[in-house]
Design goal:
By secondary structure, this protein is an alpha+beta fold. It is 29% helix and 26% strand. Strand 1, helix 1 and strand 2 form a beta-alpha-beta unit.
Amino acid sequence: MSRSLNILFLGGAKRVAVGKMILAAARKRGIDARIFGYELDVRVPLAAIGTIIPGKKWNDPDFPIHLEEVVDELGITMLLPFVDGAIAPAARFAASHPGVSCPVSSSEVAEFFFDKCISAEIFAKASLPIPETVTDLDRAVFPLIAKPRRGSASKGIEILTDREALDRIRPVAGEYLVQRYIPDATEITVDCYVAADGRILTVSPRIRLETAGGEAVRTVTVDSPEAVTLAERTIQATGLRGACTIQLLRDSAGNLMIMEINPRPGGGVVASVNAGANIPSLIVDEWAGLPLDRTFPRPGVLTVRYLEDIAFLPDGTKI
């Protein structure tokens, strides 16, 4: 096996910290690693540590062919998707190219998590707790939350407080997952890594204290055995693999429920890494065939994100 680890980040334009951690983990193990980014615009923060390749949209008919060309030209040995639309194509590509790994779930698992209505059905069949799904809109009890069934990054979500609001989406209700809205709920994000053989290697609950631009800028890890247990149950019931993020809700009575699952590294995963859930190291170690040991992150570790500038010339060259 080649000891050169050439990683293509898909949609990881802002994941500079994760990239640095992966490079550090590889260097510590004597592995020559390089980061590349596949982006629509080459002028992105990841250029600070890697080479950016002008890419295509995930749903572009030419994307699979272009990805193959990029992988061949750069000698890519790992694909690492950071956005929902890239997960299934990346997993599918790796499954058909033995020399390329992809430390996330299979394309089949990724695709059913990309459909929130199918996900809700799977959770229910596995007896995993979720907010009550509304199937009969005429008997709905408000407030409700309507999520685009194939949406991502919280786009298009609506809180429905009365019959008039519900009637607005009724003509396209099939395109939404409608659930009971839980006011004053606490969101708990759980970062996980699962080996290809199903071993759970780390589970780290955290809470976002402050967000900016849709991303966490202050995050603290928490001591929540209940969240760890529910995350492990979810992994075992759904076949999640690699790096994944499980979003939970805790209501005012302390009950935990699954909000959604992202079968990829979360945007705030660095907070869990800082607490001891060394997902970048696990990614490198599994690729290299090294021993994999479970890690137990510490609660109460606060991570604060800060801005750093990078400049480009008009032609896109990094200064």
